[in-house]
Amino acid sequence: MEARTAARRGSAAFAALAASAALAACGGSDDKGSGGAVSAGGGDAPAGVVEATKLVEEGRKPAQWKDPGPAIENASALEGKTFFYIANGLELASIQGLIKGMEEAADALGMKLVVTDGKGQPAEISKQMAQAVGQKADIIATTSFPAASIKGAISGAKKAGIPVLLGFAGDPGLPTAEEQEIGTSALMSFCYSCAGKMMADWTIADSNGKANAVIFDVPESPNTVMERDAAVAEFERLCPDCKVTVKHAPLARWSTDLQSLTSATLRSDPTITHILPVWDSMTTFIKPAIDSLGRSDDVKIVTYNAEQPQMKLLAAGDVVAADIGSPLNWAGWALFDQAARLLTGMEPAEDENIPNRVFDDVNVGEIDIEASDATWYGVDHAAEYRRLWGVE
Amino acid sequence: MSDAPMTADARAPRRRRLDLPDLGNRFGLLAAWAAVIVAFSVARPETFATAENFQAIFGSQAVLLIVTMGLLVALTAGEFDLSIAGVLNMSLVLVGFLNVEQGWPIWLAVLAALTAGVLIGLFNAFFVIVVGIESIVVTLGSGTLLLGLSLGIKNLAIPGISDGLIDVVRTELFGIQLGFWYGLLLTALVWYVFRYTPLGRYLFFVGAGRDVARLAGIRVDRIRVGALVASSGAAALAGVMLAGLLGASDPNAGSAYLLPAFAGAFLGSTAITPGRFNPWGSFIAVYFLVTGITGLQLMGLSGWIEQVFYGGSLVLAVTFSRLAAKRRRVDTSTT
Q1: How far is A155 from chain B (nearest CA, A)?
Q2: Which residues of B touch A (CB under 8 A)?
Q3: How far apart are CA A260 and CA B290, in angstroms?
Q4: A336, A44 contact by CB (below 8 A)
Q5: Do B257 and A265 lie within an 8 Å CB cutoff?
Q6: pLDDT at position A9, please?
Q7: pLDDT of residue A174
């Protein structure tokens, strides 16, 4: 999961890319005040709430599989090939979940998986890529770094004719012309803007269109900026009566500042109903502020990543009311699907169709929080990929 | 022999006049803190200038205060302890891991965390004093090692720490969380030791000049070991406090405390007893910095502006204090 992969130790790496995002995001609170017009709707609930409720109901359901592309013709050609993955911090639980999926997929295809740690630093990633090229890897992947920030590293691989896969570097899609120019062959990602949209939908439905929501973003992480912007847009679209504010929480300051920021925010506005942290790991620092002010019954946390600690709080009905998840194990398989396409001369998939699922008190009982997230989404993605690849 | 007649002034003892530059030097930081309070109270009277706000401000820095006090002891003895964040982190993770995942009673988990702190202090001391490596190097290494180890123990947050600890830290006394009062107590204790006990003197002498102190008969090595153990012990205590404050452990929470602790120690050394690390100066420094940030947060600001304010006020405060000290020297040298 995206929990801390993007910026844990590599915030400097985003300097160029994030500068524009940060400058746009920084400075003060973006106060989207409540609009005057109430959306006209038939029946009791405004139209926006009705639509949001429907979207949430859809979002709660187990996912549907959708083939990301045509079947792989000769997967046997992949046997023995090496997939070199440069992780963004091997100790992160999210990366470990991802790698587990990758190992299973590698096994299914008879490929070799090599994992090294890029430690969230472009310099280290460059070094590892050079290693990968030297070891004549067949395909290289790295996660959480957009092409522009590791340009030099990727061009080295391009020169050697090795395809490069970028994971979690923005919403799903095909690489842009510039990304291809740099040497990116394919992307794989979760839909961050979809997650942001769902956070807003859940809040709108839960508050019946009257939410006073505060979004906490991580300004140096472009993925969360995408998430936040999508949430804000969704509020504007479906909930003119909602009040939405944005607060910035740089990763390095979470443990020293986030508690007091939450406390100050809640004290400035006693009518806040929902807090929307873009990564659920922020809950550790936000929840104590809510509890200390005695607001645990009025303020709900709606968030993204579905990491175990927060899912446990959700299951216990403790402040976390909704947590959207993206399946890490599935993402590991998806990386190999892209690899399989590239290495057998096919076009990369535009979208691996990895679903998000919103968990709340309605459906959290359906899953086993202690088990791997491979079991949470209602799809046996391993079996589906095997079928698509034509392997056992 | 001078033929110049002796003036009445030269003969008579100098009358005491209000030494403004000295006062400015010693209490400038306090004045700066007051100025920030006034400024934000005017800007946001309904939210900033309230008892609730100040209670929240005081309660929020308990962890930092405790770790800074321990650091002060080390710095006074001339040792740079860069491992405090690692110790804090390890202590926090140990409490969470032992209490929640291993089911240990909370007091035992706390004891284990505090013992770990003392042991790490001894570990540092061994390499600094017995092996003879500079403390800044040893503690840089041990601190990094500890941050890594704590991630190794558990790489996710662990919520659900026993209410026992949460109550001990979060219960309010006069509206402020108990954690603050523990920090205040520790500040007073450190002040008392520095000011009124021989140990405090020895710490200072060891920090001022190890060889001279040794020649004067002070047991320098013991003092240094004690200083490093005190520093790690306080950091471990701060980790336990944080566990109670959060009601959870988090393997990434500790590293953010390293620089603010040094900021508090160094900024504090510009006040009360300028030029010397001192607990009340650091107390004022820590709260001065957080008061400003809280004011900004209440005005709706967050993100990069907080860091700019924090760093900027640190630089300005130290600069003004240094200027005040220079002026004082200039004044006295012309009389």
Answers
A1: 32
A2: 47, 52-53, 56-57, 59-60, 64, 148, 151-152, 155-160, 170, 177, 242, 245-248, 250, 252-257, 260, 290, 293-294, 297-298, 300-307
A3: 9
A4: no
A5: no
A6: 46
A7: 94
A249: chain B residues, CB-CB within 8 Å = 302-303
Chain B residues inside the 8 Å CB shell of A260 = 56-57, 60, 290, 293-294, 297
* Position A311, amino acid: M
pLDDT of the residue at A16 = 40
Q: B49: which 2 tokens?
A: 């200038």
Answer whether A4 sits within 8 Å of B252, measured CB to CB: yes
The one-letter code for the residue type at A122 is P
Write down the residue that tokens 């997929």 correspond to. A105
pLDDT at B318: 79
Q: Are residues A288 and A384 in the same domain?
A: no
Q: Name the nearest CA neighbour of A207 among A291, A275, A282, A279.
A: A275
* pLDDT of A31 above 80: no
Q: What is the CATH number of the domain that holds A339?
A: 3.40.50.2300
Q: Could you give the CA distance from residue B12 to residue B28 in angstroms, rounded to a whole number?
A: 32
Pick A92's closest partner by Cβ from B57, B155, B260. Answer: B155
> What is the span of the domain harbouring residue A142?
75-190+327-355+372-389
Claim to verify: residue A248 and residue A265 sit in the same structural domain? yes
Cα A380 to the chain's mean position, in Å? 20
Let me know whether A142 and A169 are in one domain: yes
- Residue B69 CA to residue B65 CA, distance in Å, equals 6
Question: Do the beta carbons of residue A156 and residue A130 sit within 8 Å?
Answer: yes
A117 CB near a chain B CB, below 8 Å? no
Residue A333 reports pLDDT greater than 50: yes
Which one, of B1, B241, B290, B234, lies nearest residue B121 by Cα? Answer: B234
Interface test with A, best of B169, B178, B302, B307 (most A CBs within 10 A): B302
Residue A251 — pLDDT band, cuts 50, 70, 90?
confident
Please state the domain count of chain A: 2
Distance from CA of B136 to the nearest CA of A (A): 22
Q: Do B297 and A261 touch (CB under 8 A)?
A: yes
Higher-confidence residue: B251 or B20? B251
Substitution target from A217, A228, A257 for chain B, most B beta carbons within 10 A: A257
Nearest to A93 among B156, B254, B306 (CB): B156
- Shared domain for A217 and A279, answered yes or no, is yes
Q: Are the C-beta atoms of residues A218 and A192 closer than 8 Å to each other? A: no
Residues A198 and A214 in one domain: yes
- Is residue B224 in a domain? yes
Sequence-distant (≥ 6) Cβ neighbours of residue B82 within 8 angstroms: B136, B139, B140, B143, B258
Nearest CA in chain A to B151: A91
With beta carbons less than 8 A apart as the criterion, state whether A265 and B297 touch: yes
Number of structural domains in chain B: 1
- Please report whether residue B130 resides in a domain: yes
Q: Is residue B301 part of a domain?
A: no
A56 and A201 inside one domain: yes
Specify the pLDDT at position A4.
Answer: 52
Position B112 in a domain: yes
Percent of chain B with pLDDT over 70: 91
- Binding-face residues of A in 290-349 toward B, CB within 8 A: 291-292, 307-310, 312-313
CB of A257 within 8 Å of a chain B CB? The answer is: yes
Asked if residue A212 and residue A261 are part of one domain, the reply reads yes
Do A129 and A271 lie in a common domain?
no
Domain containing residue B68: 57-253
Element housing B231 (H / E): helix B220-246
Instruction: Note whether B302 contacts A263, CB cutoff 8 Å.
Output: no
Q: What is the pTM of this model?
A: 0.85
